[in-house]
What we know:
Number of helices: 15
Strand content: 5-15%
Bound molecules: protoporphyrin IX containing FE
Strand order of the largest sheet: 1-2-8-5-3
Amino acid sequence: MSHVSMPTLRRQPLDPPEEVLRLQEEGPIHRMTFADGHLGWLVTGYSTARAVLASPHFSNRPETMHPIVPSRLEIARRGVPPVTRGFFLRMDPPDHTRYRKLLTGQFTVRRIKMLEPRIAEITAACLDEMEAAGGPLDLVEAFALPIPSLVICELLGVPYEDRAQFQVDSQILFNLETGADEALAAIGRISAYLHGLIQHKRETPSDDLLSGLIEGGELDDEELIGVSFLLLVAGHETTANMLGLGTYALLTNPDQLAAMRDDPSVAENGVEELLRYLTIIHLGPLRTALEDVEIEGALIKAGETVAMHLPVANRDPERFPDGDRLDVTRPAGGHLSFGHGIHQCLGQQLARAEMRIAYPALLRRLPGLRLAVSPEEVPMRSDMSIYGVHRLPVTW
Ligand code: HEM
């Protein structure tokens, strides 16, 4: 048990582990012994992380992973139904390209713009309910989770009432402690649910993304399950955690909160800065070298695993001076929170729209918003592959 693994212990809930920040001072790429003894690499530098993520010499297919990938990180990767075609996050070109092309048009800035009124309506309805209920309450349950969850359900055509059937299982998949059997069972349940839904839609199509994909006729059932699995799971856990953790960050940085609330022109950049500063994808992404590649003087051998540390890369002083400070007015564009290269987040415009609408609406409707517990009492998601807060007790 003397192996060095990815440092995950945070001293401060909003700062990456100090050991990784220290490594960054030494250089952009490091040999790292993963928990299982496999020797790979840890990337801490911004430009190195971009170079790896943009390089065609690295793969994201599970088959090319080192046979004994680091267990904690392998679990971190396990939003992945191993059987399913269509889960294109874990594919390389040309397969990846084929699926991604089918979907790009649905997630453009223009298409997402059309969803904005509905996102605003959903946000307002959550705030109405919060006001009616009165504080203290859990902001995750009342606001951060339902907004993105409702939006992605409506977009895909998944009945929101069915969410109990996949939210518990997606929590299981994102938990770093989940064992392989438990993860496979959860994947099986979500896939079975989606399979049923796809059959139903085949008979009674409606005006939603999933019905459109079915009617397009290019994908078989297994592929449809894989694609919808990815969109459903990626689409609500991520933004939900940004809204929860972002609100925590603003409440504990009142000057930044005031800037986001009082100046509408700040919100757009403020969202980018929150994405950068919080970097909720906090372990990985990982890639495997397809051949020997030299990056920043390091020779990465074919088959070796490279872990990008996005939270630290996003604080690289060469790219973001004074990056440990949350500053909603700094130029924060170019951060790596949505990844980079061919797998760069498909849903980023949707996530941005949700956050641009939700944060200011929350802060303006409830100007007295504050934590209902001390900051130290807020349970952080250190045990999950997507960082955030488990609960955020607030009042106003
Ligand atoms: C703030 C919220 C979000 C964050 C931080 C985030 C982050 C990421 C990151 C880092 C990747 C790349 C992973 C890699 O390279 O291995 C990714 C990919 C992806 N994301 Fe997001 N995401 C967010 C919201 C969403 C939403 C709302 C959707 C809804 C559709 C979504 C769908 C996807 C998909 C489909 C991919 C795979 C793209 C591909 O492989 O081509 N994401 N996301």
